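Record type: monomer structure entry
Structure origin: computed from sequence
Chain ID: A
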Amino acid sequence: MAGSLLLGATACGDDGDGDGLPKDYKVVAATQLCGGNAISADASKALKVITGASRFEASSKEYTVAQAASDLASAYPVGPVGGTNACRIFTPIGTPHFHLGITWRLADDAPSDAPASPKFTVLKMGEETLAGTEKAYVFFACRSDKLGAASGEAHIVIGVERGGMPRDPQDNIKALKNAYATVAHSFSLAMAKELHCDKNGGLPPKPVLIPA
């Protein structure tokens, strides 16, 4: 549950400890989030740029890259219309609240050649990467035996987006765009590996932050 919800849920202290937190509440390094193999060292540094924090609430058991890959493979070729939660990242209780949501969805086709919104910088990763100051999306194609009997390739979109009340900052725009793109790349690469995508879905081993 979200940190703010946890605080309310444990106010009665039925199954918490002396500080009002549940007994299984943990604060971990960024590299331990989302199942422990989804946030790279580069993405960990990027999360510090985005949130100002280096430690976060431990992810719930259902929010792992392995579970997200399994759900995607089960859904393919017809995925949900909107993005499906893959992982949620919260700063710890007692610190300034910040929430990032990581989602996956299946697209019908590869990205079009239509110009992207001016809020995004287009980067050279996967089929397309869109980097903004409060969100980023990585599009990549996946051919894999784990996608079942369906033929062809899946077009997968991984999104990383700030929750709560976003605002467009007036400074540090390039650093924020690069940071969001780095987190999105990290989770996308982990998903591609979990799905056994051919050539990791065309994703580079390290984030490429060069505008297309």
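Annotation 1: The helical segments are 3-9, 41-51, 65-75, 173-194.
Annotation 2: The first strand starts at residue 27 and ends at 29.
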